[in-house]
């Protein structure tokens, strides 16, 4: 099973990008994991929020494949503690989907059609973070989950 982290727009802060890449390297010791970046929309300022979400949805769909298990990172999704997230990851991996695809939407979230395609929605926090920070926080949590599942001394309760 492959795990894909699909995001819109590249990271402009090189420090965040370096840390994100470091955690992705660590994750790849446990499972195939890849960050895929969808280019930002051009002329987004001339579009309404709904138009932006619809155009982003069309771009997102191009990256999805039949058999993908789709999880949206959304502020209204289910929150889990790190240990619960690790257990959830273990169940998802045991179910053997072809690909586990986590998606971060654009600045206004997801179009309804993407919500309908998703099997689950998770939230990292009730707080709002920049899209660049979410990338780093999420890959750290994936790494943390893998260390928990492997009994390694990274996570402390």
Low-confidence stretches: none
Task: Characterize the main sheet.
Answer: 5 strands, parallel
Q: State the end-to-end CA separation.
A: 29 Å
According to CATH, what is the class? Alpha Beta
Number of helices: 5
Under CATH, the topology can be stated as: Alpha/beta knot
Give a count of the beta strands, DSSP E runs of length 2 or more.
Answer: 5
Calculate the mean pLDDT score and round it: 93
Radius of gyration: 15 Å
Main β-sheet, spatial strand arrangement:
2-1-4-3-5
* SSE topology string: EHEHEHEHEH
How many discrete domains? Answer: 1
Helix content: 40-55%
CATH superfamily membership: SPOUT methyltransferase, trefoil knot domain
Helix/strand-derived category reads: alpha/beta
Spatial shape? globular
- What proportion of the residues form beta strands (DSSP E)? 15-25%
Question: What is the CATH architecture assignment?
Answer: 3-Layer(aba) Sandwich
């Amino acid at each position: 099973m492959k795990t894909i982290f699909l995001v819109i727009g590249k990271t402009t802060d090189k420090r965040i990008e370096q840390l994100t890449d470091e955690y992705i390297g660590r994750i790849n010791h446990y499972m195939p994991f890849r960050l895929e970046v969808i280019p930002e929309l051009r002329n987004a300022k001339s579009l309404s929020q709904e138009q932006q979400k619809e155009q982003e949805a069309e771009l997102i769909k191009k990256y999805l494949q039949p058999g993908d298990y789709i999880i949206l990172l959304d502020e209204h999704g289910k929150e889990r503690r790190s240990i619960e997230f690790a257990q959830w990851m273990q169940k998802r991996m045991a179910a053997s989907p072809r690909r586990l695809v986590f998606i971060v939407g654009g600045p206004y979230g997801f179009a309804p059609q993407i919500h309908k395609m998703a099997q689950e929605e998770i939230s990292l926090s009730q707080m709002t973070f920049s899209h660049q920070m979410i990338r780093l926080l999420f890959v750290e949590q994936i790494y943390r989950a893998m260390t928990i599942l492997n009994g390694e001394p990274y996570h402390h309760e």
